[in-house]
Amino acid sequence: MNKVILLVLLMPVSAFGQIMESFESGDISRWIQNPIGRWNCDNISALSGTRSFHHTFDNPESGTDCAGLPVKNLLPEEGPVKWSFKVRHGAEPSSSNKWEVFLLSDSDPAGIVNDEPCNGWAVGVNQTGNDDLLQLWKVTEGTFTSVIRGAVNWQSAIGTTEHVRIDVERSPDGRWEMKVFRQNGDLTDSCSVTDSWYAGGDWFIVRYDYTSSRDRLLWIDDIIIDGVFSNDTSPPPGAGDIIISEIMADPSPVVSLPASEYLEICNNSPDAINLDNWSLTAGTQDYHFPPVTIGPHEYMTVCHSKDAPLFSVYGKVTGLQSFPLLTDGGKLLALTDGSGNLIDGLEYSSDWYDDVLKSEGGWSLEIIDNSHPFSGDENWKASVSRKGGTPGSQNSVSGNNPDTHFTGITNVFPDDSITISLSFSESVPWFAGEAESIKIDDSDIMELYSSDKLLRKFTAIPDKPLEKAKIYSLNADESITDFAGNRMETKNFRFGIPEQVAKGDIIFSELLFNPMPGSADYIEFYNCSGKIIDLSRLAVVSLSVENSDTSDLYFLSHENRCLLPGDYYVITVDREAICDGFISSAPGRIFEVSSMPSMNDDGGHLILFSRELDLIDELYYDEDMHFSLLGSTEGIALERAFSTGLSSDRLWHSASESSGWGTPGATNSLVSESVINDNQISLSSTRITPDNDGNHDFLVISMKFTGNGNIVTATVFDENGGFVKKITDNLLTGPEASLIWDCTADDETLVSSGIYILLVTTFDDKGKTRRWKKVCTVVR
Fold first, then answer.
1. Are 42 and 52 in contact (CB under 8 A)?
2. In the chain, what are the domain boundaries?
3. For 406-495, which CATH class?
4. CA dist., res. 299 & res. 363, Å (int)
């Protein structure tokens, strides 16, 4: 088990401390290996206890393998330092089979393996020459100089079966002493020298050089480092200090980079940050970082350990022994520190490329503005590098791209009477979850917490249970901001406990089935009941007009969401296109879904089902329901004229031109509501102006009867009694019905200005006949 013990004395900036590695826990996650996977902690010929650190890689070739332990903030010039470890080398030493331990190194294991110039101090055998003597070397810019040449000849005095304990001490004035203890504890050698040279270093590294027949023959155990360590007074990393800056989820077909997935992270802070015990979450799985340090404003590629050598040519890289599968379509990614605090996170999608060709593979996604993480797709785009990406270096799309808005609350839903789910449009990393920041009418919140890695969703526990059939309002304190400090545009949200949906509670209200090029279909629903309805329990299907085959069920919402009485709800596969394309839209009521039923341009059949597959509403639509004098219906929505009654009633008309040809999420441009008594008819207006401006463009005839079996015939005549059009003939209706006259004659041409007479005749199932005459004026 790794142990760091700091005994704080009366010292403001430093303290005596100790690092111990006994390996008894079997945990070597703090050790950085290069190459990866060459060392393990096992019980094969353990030097002490039940386990030792052991070179275990069976290499068919000769090799040089290193493993390093980060040693932060050691201060050899402020107090004595003692290094102690046990070692056994199971091969006779030579110039090709040798080992050394770097007590101090300013280079990491990768640098040592690659013989990069480094500075530090090392102890071992045959690093220079082949005299088999245990020595202490000073290392300057990669050059080894022997400063202590011990009396222990490893081959003759120690051999291949015995282990020894080596103690090396350094005083603040530079006096070095090396002692060697045999396996039985006897001191066999003690030498000293004075050399005050010190060039820093924050690594303890084991290096093993071997031929193919001498691998797996080095053991290390019971490492102890005693000394003075500086207290870390720098603030801990916070949100945005380290960010995910690049994602290569689909490397094939290759452009120029290795055919392997990778992430890139960037240190936005002015301080070096050690990622020891940090986690990368991908989906629901956590992956742990080794104790690697990323420098100020430095980029680092993160990939699978087996791919690390491939990316080392592009800059700094760290390999994870287990690396997530970065799915092409998208995945949640989060960086958390050792305490579980969110540092950065996102949920990427292939749509972020905004480039059909590059989204097919070989190109990475890059963040645009490093200073504005957590801002989603608006701050990401496909790489423009000719290599396909920029791992380990500044992004090719780097630029200024400030985050200037925060939608705020996007959903509130009661899981039950005492548990409420609250969702924000983006992460709120500065929000500590203070319960007093949320209010629900006159109720207080007793507890507020989040189990969402990205801190977008919270759970609130009110101080008293919610009541059924009551609409509540949740209000969030305006101090809650996004990462960029933007305040919420929506900080209050209405909700309530949902009720069971019944036929006619939710109706089709508007649909666009023949969109303009580059736009998308949409379907609008309206809650004409007095109930609160859960949209996640409603699904729409399309039926084939030819053979009545049913499409898949398309649920209106992938999450629980309340639709309150009198509210509209719109689904589409391209929310941005609908919001931008219709000037009268209500963006807060328009929601993007991954897929929805296909709707033919000339007509179709839609059914709204409950989760129990009870029919809630049904609609047959076709292009003939549009205003007959329109030259083209492309991009024009079809709207209900009434907000009550089943959609099978043909009470539909083209959206008005003045509304922008559609009102997704808003009150329909042509809606008409009439209140009449039993056995009466009423007209929506006596003055009709069929110019499609949204104001009295057609005539609505509303009827109300006392019985169910009513046969209705409605005919229009001109002021001279001449026949104009039969609106309906022998239509069977229930107690209520409505008809529309769009001011066209029987030949579908628009009638002239003038006075028109409407004759409505009905007879019921008891044989009783009634007639009404109504007069209206058409003005063109």
1. yes
2. 2-230, 242-382, 406-495, 498-671, 673-780
3. mainly beta
4. 18
Q: In the prediction, which pLDDT does 650 show?
A: 58
Are 714 and 679 spatial neighbours (Cβ–Cβ below 8 Å)? no
- CA-nearest of 107, 111, 137, 109 to 122 is 137
Give the whole-angstrom CA distance, residue 103 versus residue 225. 9
pLDDT tens-digit readout, 556-565: 999 999 999 9
Beta strand pairing call for 754-764 and 615-622 = unpaired
CA gap 664, 568 in Å, rounded: 8
Whether domain 2-230 has CATH 3.30.200.20: no
Q: Which two tokens stand for residue 712?
A: 């209705």
Q: What is the CATH number of domain 242-382?
A: 2.60.40.1260
- Which tens digits make up the pLDDT trace of 575-608? 999 999 999 999 999 999 999 998 999 889 999 9
**CB burial readout 242-257, b (16+ within 10 A) else e:** bbbbbbbbbbeeebeb
CATH number of 498-671: 2.60.40.1260
Whether 242-382 and 498-671 share one fold: the answer is yes
Token pair of 79 as six digits: 């107090």
Looking at CATH, the fold of the domain delimited by 673-780 is given as Immunoglobulin-like (2.60.40)
Spatial separation of the C-alpha atoms in residues 524 and 509, rounded to whole Å? 5
Query: What are residue 175's DSSP bridge partners?
Result: 194
Q: Cα–Cα distance between 28 and 288 in angstroms, integer?
A: 12
Which among 262, 539, 556 is positioned nearest to 387, based on CA atoms? Answer: 262
